[in-house]
Amino acid sequence: MATATKVGPKFQIVIPKQIREAARLRVGDYVEATLTRQGIVLRPKALVDRGLERALSEALKDIKAGRLYGPYNSAKEAVRGLHRAMERERKPSGEEVGRQSKTGRSAKRRSRGAANARNLQR
Asked: What's the CA gap between 88 and 108, in Å, rounded?
């Protein structure tokens, strides 16, 4: 499938449509240019982010350690589950979110009562 193409003023070339389609090239894809004895060879090239490998390794460690959420059946369910997980991480251990212990309520009442008594004495 040899086709002639012209080198442009900025050394750009157009890859003919039938070759682009056969190679499944898309706009923005990278190609690797290699000079061989037969001429220039262009190969599709997938670039991988350097941090991606490390991030994937950490993610696999988290999964193996059980540090994950889900599975969820919908995006709405996932958001709700993540909000609950954040609330659990914020609260002190042993207490439920949104509820005060009886000692917490009575301590507040006592401190309010003491403040009121001091104000009356003045």
From this structure: 24
Q: CA angle 46-52-54, nearest 5°?
A: 135
**Each residue's pLDDT tens digit, 22-45:** 988 989 889 999 999 999 999 998
Indicate where the chain has its CATH 2.10.260.10 domain(s): 1-47
Backbone phi and psi for residue 41, each to the nearest 5 degrees, phi listed first: -115, 130
Pick from 42, 25, 20: nearest CA to 33: 42
As a residue count, the chain comes to 122
* Distance from C-alpha of 44 to C-alpha of 61, rounded to nearest angstrom: 32
Classify domain 1-47 by CATH number. Answer: 2.10.260.10
